[in-house]
Amino acid sequence: MAESHKENSGEWTEVIAAVVSGLRVLRGFGIRCVPAPIRTASATRIAFGQGPAQAQLLIVARQDDPLGPPFTGEAGQLLDRMLGAMGLSREEVFVCLATQGASPETESGPLLEERVAQIRPSHILGLGDGAVGVLCPAHDKKTFSDLRGRLLPHPSGARLLFSFHPGYLLQNPAAKKLAWQDLQKVMTEMKLKPKEHR
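Request: output the structure for the sequence above.
Response:
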């Protein structure tokens, strides 16, 4: 009986170790497991990340379904065209998705800081007004309109620029010209050229 108990204990130790290891892997991908009471509509957090670990461009945007794949459908197709115009592909950038919430100081701030520290991008592109509170809590009195199109210093040392969310551009095509002007500023700093001109 004692030997059986020891064997079971050993098995449970292995299971627990595997679970802990798995949670660390999930956290490495930008997914954090939190107690159910914190999983409310008012919680703001970076919920999902996808892209290469050493990407020079980090994109932060809001998505209502943070556990779903990032930028699918027409918005995803437009994002791919925007990146292509910059001389990049989706596989070359890291995309962080954020849920919209009441306070940028709940989980999104610290977790995003960890993500930026891991990737160490040279530039961060915030898409849409939902990215402002996550990336610029110090500018909580500034609106998206105040910050859009301006290259700003980020605490990590990266250069930060806000532009329009692809979903907004689909509904407001006239803003695409302004969005392109924003992207060209990032291209100039990153010394990027469209792929057909490389």
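Strands lie at 46-50, 57-62, 94-98, 123-127, 152-153, 159-163.
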